[in-house]
Amino acid sequence: MRKKRLLWRRVLPLSLLLFVYSFSLAQSRTISGKITDATDGTGLPGVTILVKGTKTGAQTGSDGSFSITVPNTATTLVVSSVGYATKEIPIGSGSFNITIVKSSGTALNDVVVIGYGTVKQKDLTGSVATVTSKDFQQGAAITTPDELISGKLAGVSVTPNGGQPGSAATVRIRGLSSLNGNNDPLYVIDGVPMQSLKSPDPNNPLGNSTIPGVTDPLSMIDPNDIESMTVLKDASAAAIYGSRASSGVILITTKKGKSGSPKFNFNTQLGGSVIAKEESVLSTNQLKNYVTTNGTPSQIALMGGVSTNWQNQIYQTGAITNSNLSMAGALKNLPYYVSVGYLDQAGILKTDNLKRTTASLRLNPILFDNHLKIDFNFNFAHENTKFANQAAIGAAAAFDPTQPVMNPKGSPFGGYFEWTTGNDSTPNTNATKNPVALLNQYNSSSMANRVYGNIQFDYKLHFLPDLHINLNLGLDTSKGWGSVHVPGDAAQQWGTTTNHGQNYQYQGTNQNTVLEFKLNYVKDIADINSNINVLAGYGYYNNRSYTYNYASFDSKGDTIPGTAPLYPFSINENTLLSYFGRLIYTYNNKYLLTASIRTDGSSRFPSNNRYGVFPAIAVAWKLSEESFLKNSTTVSSLKLRASYGVTGNQDFISNYGYIPGYYLSNNGSQYQFGNNFYYLYTPSPYDANLKWEQTASTNIGIDYGFLNNRITGSVEYYYKNTTDMINSIFIPDGTNFTNKYTANIGNMVSKGVEFSINAVAIQTNKVTWNLSFNIAYEDIKITKLTNNSSDPTFYGDAVGGISGGTGNTIQMNTVGYTPQAFFVLQQIYNQKSGTPIEGLYVDRNRDGVISSPPSSPDAYHYKTPFAPVIMGFSTSVSYLKWSLSTVLRANIGNYVYNNVAANLAVQRSILNPNNFISNTLTTYSNTNFINNQYFSDYYVENASFLKMDNLRLNYNFGNVINSKVRLNISASCQNVFVITKYSGIDPEIYGGIDNNIYPTPRTYTLGVNLGF
Amino acid sequence: MKKNLFNIGSLMLMAVTFIAGCTKDLNRYPSNTATASTVYSTAAGYKEALAKVYGSFALTSSTGPGNSDLGGIDAGTSDFVRLLWDAQELSTDEAVCAWNDPGVPDFHNMNWNSGNVILNGLYSRSIYQITVANSFIANASDAAIAKFTGSDATNIKYYRAEARFLRAYQYSVLMDLFANPPFTTEKSPIGTAFLPPQISRADLFSYVESELLSLDSANAMVTAMQNEYARADQACVWALLARIYLNAEIYTGTARYTDAITYANKVIAAGYSLLPNYQNLFLADNNLNNTEQLLSIAYDGQNTQNYGGTTFIINAAIGGKMTPANYGVPGGGWGGNRVTSNIPNLFPDLTGTLDHRSLFFTNGQNETINQIANFNDGLAVTKFQNVTSTGATPPNASVFASTDFPLFRLGEIYLIYAEAVLRGGTGGTNAQAITYFNMLRQRAYGNASGNVASLALQDILNERGRELYWECFRRTDLVRFGVFTSGSYLWPWKGGVSSGTGTDDHFNIFPIPSVDLNANPNLIQNKGY
Questions:
Q1: Which of B2, B36, B335 has its CA nearest to residue A908?
Q2: Which of A366, A601, A981, B216 could make an S-S bridge to A577, C-beta 3.0–4.6 Å?
Q3: Burial of residue A141 (number of CB atoms within 10 Å: 0-12, 13-18, 19+)
Q4: Gap between the Cα atoms of A321 and A167, Å rounded
Q5: Average pLDDT in the B94-117 region?
Q6: Which uninterrupted H or E stretch holds A520?
Q7: Closest Cα partner for A360 from A334, A335, A341, A375?
Q8: DSSP secondary structure string, B293-326?
Q9: Which backbone phi and psi does B411 adopt, to 5 degrees?
Q10: Shortest CA distance from B20: residue in chain A
């Protein structure tokens, strides 16, 4: 420390001298002033002030003040800052106390963040899209960051994963780029690339949270603290993130402190969630009539005498409160932002609850005469979750409504009515369990903490101010633990041992560290009309998780056989080491070139395949700067862009997939020799040749702005080709310790077109009307899947497990088709009535026999769960202090397999041979099937939809209470309506298999925002 | 300035050292994992590795019953006996299954193809065990064993011999079912881009025979009846030889009945004897004092948990009016498998009063199968149960069975002897064949009332139906007797028709799974598929 200070003392005077010397050469003068936020009057640090037409500039200090020396010839200053509209100020005399306003939409002069830097919107060469806090979706039910941008960006699909508190959506940028690798985008928060904390799971396309007890790691980021989200869509923009960028990158910028005395902002939202649509099941009387008409005497005798609406029994109105208090200002030269947030969200499924406390602190001092910029970000989140047993959702649709919740005669199952076998003391294993008992006799709760943040030093050399040295140190640690308790009298865990019941706990931690060091050199070379921006960097990323292993116990505390762990914990770790560089070259402010390269070394690959190289190049031409357009009043901006780049993916299930090794089996998997049981020393499968998955993509785009940029937008075309796909694929039998393993086999191609338009339709003193619309079309096909494609009877890789039977699948990955295309039998319908005829399908191979998928020559590829067309529409109208806004989304051409109907809406389900009665959907009469027809294409339904995600009315009281307090009150509704042909409760299901999903509720919110 | 340069230089040096240090961090190894050198450094390690060679046909995975060594098939369905049972029983008159699980209906319809999930799983399971055995054998080379002395060295040699036996056994299964599988040995590489060559059925027969003969002539196995329970001994080698010689004409076109008799004789002379009570062979304590079993797959409700094996055979057979607890699986009863009427028709009565092997549950069950999907159609079978011979239920019996599955037992050997004699093999006599045959009859009837005075070949097939039903022999038997596909012998729902119909002869062999054909260009599909 002492040494450092000495160094500054030596360098500072020298560099000052240099400055004075250089400035004294030309005729110039010094202008000083202060830049403040138009709404709250705080000084804004880090704002760029440029002399128009030159690269002479300065940045504001921590309190917003600046001083700039300008040549006498200068006439105008250009003031710009991330998230603010750029403003041009004529240089006259007098003071320069300039106020700037938050930008509306994506003004072309806005500075947007890109990987490892910022660039003006108009100078972008890649496909980059930004949404700022002003345009976020809002409402109490928006509790995770991904939902903020839902419907806002072309080619970015945000699919909710049901209504469980804390569940985030599935975000896909330009569809899939991998079959088995991670398809989640890389999140970069304040410059720190975050580990996804989700392990891709071939059986669960949504992946599993690696923070135990946390539904989705994204839920631990408070959206209230986010200022803007930027999506890097094409390879040229994303390739600087190399091997983790194949699925796109989302850059999150958090809110920062400004200057002056503390400004408080208090935002609170109160809401209530209700179920938007229940499964339409038979009423008590309808079911009674059905059973009486069609059942055997013993089945009729099974019915009870009461009427219970099981769905009403399990759902509730879920209350939500979501509050955030922030304080922003500056303590002398130290801008700060402090916030605390609290969320308490009850699910619409009874017993479901999430409580979240968040806190964040940001310090952004600028020291040493603006030469050292420090960004310190600290975030803390604590979650306390109670998980409902979601098995109750399916059970409520299926449970016999003639039965009571509590058995009036009493029961050995905590008094609940349950189906039993013969005697009344053993539950019927095959029967549906009492939905209310499933909820009440299941106690699952968890706690989790997450601390993440970074400190970034950006030092502008005194003797060479064009060169920045930047060190970024990031940390993300989390810990989660929880327990599940099912009592001994619960039918849901009957017979685990003679004592019944189940108790177990779980615990785990994650620690991710990031170190990035980079040099950035920016130089205007006026002689050749050029600007260069060169970046070189090094990155080290480590991800380490601990999972503790525990046994399960029965209700009397005895260990359940086979559950005692062999090892007290296991460690999973992977490391990534990177070198990267980029050149941005601008010629004559018209021609732009960006070239970047990144080399990533991953611990997931053997040493001979360890490093992957990911280059990208992009060019852009600002036509509107050419003389033939420069003076056009219609065309205010026009830019052509083209890019090509390679990104990689190494994020898949195994950290150690290339390493041969042996592990001991667990307690329930031993083998007997003589009178002793032996653990099995088991060789793990491995692929000694494992390597990178690569996606090469080409992007062509046009950015346009008309009528003084009141109408802006872009059109894009892209083509992506994934090769050496990391794919869980059948490998030659006999060559490994499994038959299906992750290998680099397979290619996939996707191409698409995106269009977006933003318009300010009306802008007067009283009325403003903004509109924005986006639409994306995508076509994605698998082009290679195996080593050898000569076998005509190979249908592909069966995926999409369904409920019903054991191991049935409904989808097939096949060369020439979209991933997860449904693979089903073609239903034959009665010509007159139009109803499907049970068991009658088109015999496609004409052999007289219909065989069931997946290995069926009679099956065909029919539709896909991925919508080829996705649209989003946002609009807001403000009139004086009122404003009204809405967000609508539509998917066209997506299909969903209605597994609920395939399971329940048949006679065999209602009147089954297992001695219990089941309720059914009202749609059963559309088919009147006797037996389940799981593979009929009848159940693959058109799930195209139009959804109103959000409707919001806001009244801005302005300054009240002696003008000291700003007050905003809003009312909003989330998930307002859905228009669809789909017969289930929600057409929007990632992966396309509807099997009793947790319904996304409709949430009504009242919000108050106070500023003082 | 010099000092500054020095500072910059030292900074760069530090940076280089730091980065070089980080490069080492790219070598990450999993926790709780051992390398081959540690596993095979002790005799105990060898034994635990041998446990995996055996465990490969007893368990679906080493990480619990919900996981699998294999992909592309439901984990609980991916175990050896369950898959073998489906292929050997559901394709015949011995069983129908109510479930519509992928691949199951193809067996009733006799229209399976190269995409059948169950056949793919069985093929992969057999080859998986071969691969695990290959790896074990490679790690138990003479050089490796030379590091051990005394009983450790002796034991490891036995382990290696047993791994070779289990490999030969699985190759015999592949030879029987798929005829021309890919072929690997302990010399084949693992985890690389290597593509195994295909071996013809006849060549595979020679290989299996030579492996077994070499084990026998070298006395590599533990002496008959002297090994630990659930480990193979020399008698298992003889039994497998007898079994493949009985079927040699199917596999190679050359009859080897004399050899079948030779090796059946060796087993019989080893000292095994029939258990007095037939049902006790299939109960939860069949691992204790069992004088008839040569080798079983050992299951245990607490320590060897699996949703296949006898857990599957027992639970899938319970439905309708049956009370699962009566069969030792109070939390189970999956309502799946029954017999077609052909099997009960082999017995003199359904109650088991005369022939005690007639173990059917008839209450609420129709003998005629109108709907395969209806458990009440077709008689239920109570042959396998998870209760002990004294009626007790073993621990942790909710669904997991502790009943062991017999792979080789004396009863089968007697019938091999009798059939080989009737088919013209030398080294045995007709009178001895009748004696062995009647020993089974006498046990079944409890007296001599069921004994026969003469034997015809058809009697052997029928007796195998009575003695060995649901023990995974039926398809092989029907193929050997030439009636599996032809219209000369029918059963309800053969070929997907309720009255039964003949099918094409190519169904006598199962297809090479298309997923492996696509992964391994060396493979050529079997004829007709």
A1: B335
A2: A601
A3: buried
A4: 17
A5: 90
A6: strand A502-525
A7: A341
A8: EEEEE--BTTTB--SSHHHHHHHHT--TT--GGG
A9: -50, -45
A10: A577
Rounded distance, CA B180 to CA A171, Å?
Answer: 47
For chain A, count helices (H), then strands (E): 10, 56
Higher confidence at residue A579 or residue A79? A579
Which residues of chain B from 363 to 402 reach within 8 Å of chain A, CB to CB?
Answer: 373-376, 395-396, 398-399
Q: How far apart are the first and last CA of chain A?
A: 39
Give the one of B19, B36, B52 whose C-beta lies nearest to A660's C-beta.
B36
Please check whether residue B411 touches A, CB under 8 A: no
ipTM of the complex: 0.94
CA–CA min distance B355, chain A (Å):
30
pTM comes to 0.86
In chain B, residues 89-118 whose CB comes closer than 8 Å to chain A: 99-103, 105-106, 109, 111-117
pLDDT per residue as tens digits for the range B252-273 = 999 999 999 999 999 999 999 9
DSSP for A874-908 reads EEEEEETTEEEEEEEEEEES-EEEEHHHHHHSSHH
Give backbone dihedrals phi and psi of A975, rounded to 5 degrees, phi first: 60, 60
Average pLDDT of the segment spanning B232-240? 98
| CB spacing of B61 vs A669 below 8 angstroms | yes
% of chain A residues with pLDDT over 90: 53
Distances (CA, A) of B529 to A684, A748, A823, B111: 34, 30, 21, 10
Contact B331 A687 (CB under 8 A): no
- Give the nearest partner residue to A735 out of B196, B374, B518, using CB atoms: B196
Residue A61 has pLDDT above 80, yes or no: no
Q: Please, are residues A1002 and A276 in contact by the beta-carbon 8 Å criterion?
A: yes
Chain A residues touching residue B123 (CB < 8 angstroms): 733
Summarize pLDDT for A536-572 with one digit per residue, the tens: 999 999 999 999 999 999 999 999 888 888 889 989 8
pLDDT over 80 at A858, yes or no: yes
Q: Write the CB contacts of A5 (distance below 8 Å, at least 6 apart in sequence).
A: none
Chain B residues within 8 A of A673 when measuring between CB atoms: 47, 51, 54, 228-231
> CA-to-CA distance for B158 and B163, rounded, in angstroms?
9
pLDDT band with cut points at 50, 70 and 90 for residue A12: very low
B23, B182, B525: residue with CB nearest A732 = B182
Cβ-based contacts under 8 A for chains A and B = 361
A576, closest residue in chain B (CA to CA): B26
Put simply, the answer to whether B194 touches A610 (Cβ < 8 Å) is: no
Closest CA to B267 of B235, B301, B292: B235
3-state secondary structure of A63: coil
3-class SS at A512?
A: strand
Nearest to A15 by CA among A525, A469, A522, A466: A466
Per-residue pLDDT for A196 more than 50?
Answer: yes
Each residue of A210-233: pLDDT tens digit? 888 888 888 888 888 998 899 998
Per-residue pLDDT reduced to its tens digit, A156-174: 988 888 888 888 888 899 8
Please tell me which of the candidates B228, B331, B396 has its beta carbon nearest to residue A494. Answer: B331
